[in-house]
Design goal:
Blueprint lengths: L3 E6 L4 H10 L5 E7 L8 H4 L11 E2 L11 E4 L6 H11 L4 E4 L9 H8 L6 H6 L1 E2 L2 H9 L3 E3 L3 H15 L9 E6 L14 H4 L4 E2 L7 H13 L6 E6 L6 E8 L5 H11 L6 E3 L17 E7 L5 E8 L3 H15 L16
Parallel strand pairs: 1-2, 1-4, 2-3, 4-5, 5-7, 6-7, 8-10, 12-13
Antiparallel strand pairs: 8-11, 9-10, 11-14, 13-14
Helix pairs in contact: 1-11, 6-11, 7-9
Length: about 350
């Protein structure tokens, strides 16, 4: 197969950089355009020195890319700026495949988007077209899509753990409590006081309590699985490590046992290449998936009667972002889903 020509919007951010890292060794991809308006004119290795060995195109403003020459574009831009840029790219090249790693097309309801992101959606015609790109749940739709909205990192970890259980009616979807922790790359590469080493190191801090925007995605997809509106209790925390994510979900059982939950998850992911359900007594750990596209899920009985604890972990920059986007790209181009993504976790 001829290599697909790939452009990356927002290549100077962490998700954009991880897309470069993974695509640089993808046998069917050729990175031909990298954009970063604030770093335009620089070599990628000036912004990310660990790419010193790669022959990559220089960073340019997105407006200067000839989008008609590209087969796919990955978007790692912040929410709010993405909608109009993607609309412009698709207008220039209606045949291009878009893998959006921002939040701009994840919510199906336009009113929900305005509520959570503070402004009206500026590309409603594309919002209706976008496919929610949680690969294991929407594989067929992703395969046929032109625009895929890749899920947030927290929703990916939570939904893979809970959607099969909600769909099978094994848990009470009105009684879900999610305690989530993410490495500091989840906060982006911009300079922020709370991500300075002296502020984030040697400590653990909650943020966006009761108001994190990923709640909307989680509720959208669990609600779709359960067939009813859902509200979850979701609290994220910043943990002092560069990458990685761990979600602990406390659930009330609907006449099921923790072993029933594990069996349902094992059935749901029996043929999935990247989702692994741990055996009874084996606990997921972030170090087991660091740098990889794999997800670990475990189930533990709570000491409280009729409750269980569901654990899930992934790398927020890989399966939680760039890796999942490449997994979706593979489907959109008819490639084996695992192409370029079978790296083993970095340990220790």
């Amino acid at each position: 197969m001829t290599k697909k020509k790939i452009g990356i919007l927002g290549a100077s951010g962490y998700t954009g950089a991880d897309a470069v890292r993974l695509l640089a060794r993808h046998p069917n991809a050729e990175i031909t355009a990298l954009t970063a308006n604030t770093h335009a004119g620089k070599a990628m290795s000036e912004v990310f020195p660990h790419f010193f060995m790669l022959d990559l195109p220089k960073l340019v403003e997105w407006e200067k890319v000839d989008w008609t020459r590209l087969d796919a574009a990955f978007c790692g831009l912040p929410h709010g700026t993405t909608q109009e840029i993607i609309a412009a790219v698709l207008k220039a090249n209606p045949r291009i495949k878009i893998l959006d790693m921002s939040a701009d097309f994840r919510l199906r309801n336009k009113d929900s988007y305005a509520q959570w992101y503070g402004h009206e959606h500026r590309a409603l015609e594309l919002q209706d077209e976008a496919v929610y790109g949680l690969t294991e749940l929407y594989r067929e739709r992703v395969t046929a899509a032109r625009l895929v909205a890749c899920p947030g990192c927290y929703p990916t970890a939570v939904l893979l753990a809970l959607v099969p259980l909600a769909k099978a009616k094994l848990i009470d979807v009105d009684e879900i409590i999610i305690d989530a922790k993410s490495g500091v790359t989840g906060a982006g590469r911009g300079l922020k006081q709370n991500t300075l080493f002296s502020e984030a190191g040697e400590g653990l801090s909650p943020y966006s309590i009761g108001s994190h925007r990923h709640s909307a995605e989680i509720e959208q997809e669990i609600g779709a699985a359960a067939g009813s509106a859902v509200t979850v209790n979701f609290t994220p925390h910043l943990i002092p490590m560069a990458r990685g994510e761990f979600c602990t979900s406390y659930v009330k059982l609907n006449g099921a046992t923790p072993d029933d939950l594990r069996a349902e998850l094992e059935k749901a992911y029996a043929n999935e290449p990247f989702v692994y359900v741990t055996k009874k007594g084996v606990l997921p750990q972030t170090q087991n998936v660091r740098g990889s596209n794999y997800v670990q899920i475990g189930v533990v009985a709570d000491r409280i009667k009729n409750r269980a604890i569901v654990l899930s972990t992934l790398d927020n920059l890989v399966k939680g972002s760039a890796g999942q986007a490449i997994q979706n790209m593979n489907l959109m181009f008819g490639l084996p889903e695992t192409t370029g993504l079978e790296q083993i976790a970095l340990f220790p």
